[in-house]
Backbone:
């Protein structure tokens, strides 16, 4: 049942990404590339096997290796950075220069965590039990490393890359705990992180299309004055990634903490990682939307109708999930 939920949610995110993209960039090849990624992700989840997850993961990388789909190629090294989430430096470069929304969909599938969990489940029970503490420690270490790296980043695209990679590591930590609380926390975090980070990417892509190079200006940009709706959508997604109450991120963080603490003392690091992630994403919100508006943002168009529908759906999902998390967890 959980695989069906993940596949359905990823398909919904893909539809939202397609609808929110500026029409000038929504070419048939671009749409076909996103649908291909969605099909590969869905096949990986619904296969319920290690081989199926691995093949789906490999297939989803194909559109990024040619310039004919998203008008730019990330190359083999960029594709490898999507597979190996500890490759933080190259992953950030891939997000900075590659197609933001398709890359977000690819990373938000968190197939690395899925493959690792299925590989662990395929091992003999004694070997799996001996491997769990090592995998748990590695996952928490990578999550902490990602949070610390995001703290040192300035460019929004690079921050997104590190935040998404860190969320994948936390999901893996929940999956390898070996208890129900950890598994439920991983599922809830997968949903919260996927929706929230996709919303952040959609808002930023819309702002990027409106302002272009003006976004590279240092300091506060003051975009909330011209685009208050976009500021609200970004803020709610940031709150969810920061594990704040009244969003799905809060019960996800609580369940994950219970599961990891039950598996070992390494869980004591999770509140620190969560606080650092919250600071990073709220700092990014402040840089984009607080302060006096820059000249390029004085006549900034607010969220368009197609953007409002997509982002409002994500907002409702995060808020209602925070109020009734049991409805999303089997």
Residues:
């Amino acid at each position: 049942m959980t695989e069906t939920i993940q596949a359905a949610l990823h398909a919904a995110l893909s539809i939202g990404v397609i609808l929110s993209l500026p029409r000038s960039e929504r070419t048939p090849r671009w749409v076909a590339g996103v649908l291909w990624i969605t099909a590969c992700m869905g096949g990986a989840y619904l296969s319920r096997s290690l081989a199926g997850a691995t093949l789906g993961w490999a297939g989803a990388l194909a559109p990024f290796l040619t310039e004919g789909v998203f008008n730019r190629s990330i190359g083999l090294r960029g594709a490898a950075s999507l597979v190996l989430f500890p490759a933080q430096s190259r992953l950030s470069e891939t997000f900075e220069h590659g197609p933001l929304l398709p890359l977000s969909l690819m990373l938000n599938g968190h197939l690395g965590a899925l493959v690792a969990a299925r590989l662990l489940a395929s091992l003999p029970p004694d070997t799996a039990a001996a491997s769990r503490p090592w995998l748990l420690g590695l996952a928490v270490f990578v999550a902490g490393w990602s949070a610390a790296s995001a703290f040192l980043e300035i460019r929004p695209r690079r921050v997104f890359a590190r935040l998404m990679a860190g969320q994948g590591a936390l999901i893996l930590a929940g999956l390898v705990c070996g208890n129900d609380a950890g598994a439920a926390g991983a599922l809830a975090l997968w949903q919260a992180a996927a929706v929230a980070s996709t919303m952040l990417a959609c808002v930023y892509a819309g702002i990027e299309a409106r302002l272009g190079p003006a976004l590279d200006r240092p300091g506060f940009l003051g975009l909330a004055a011209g685009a208050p709706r976009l500021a609200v959508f970004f803020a709610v997604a940031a709150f969810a990634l920061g594990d704040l109450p009244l969003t799905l991120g809060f019960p996800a963080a609580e369940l994950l903490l219970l599961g990891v603490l039950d598996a070992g003392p390494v869980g004591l690091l999770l509140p620190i990682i969560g606080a650092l992630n919250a600071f990073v994403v709220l700092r990014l919100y402040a840089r984009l939307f607080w302060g006096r508006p820059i000249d390029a943002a004085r006549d900034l168009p607010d969220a368009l109708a197609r953007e409002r529908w997509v982002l409002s759906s994500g907002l409702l999902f995060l808020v209602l999930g925070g109020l009734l998390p049991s409805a999303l967890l089997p």
User: Anything to note?
Assistant: The mean pLDDT is 88. The CA atoms of residues 15 and 52 lie 23 Å apart. Residues 2-327 form one domain. The first helix runs from residue 2 to 20.
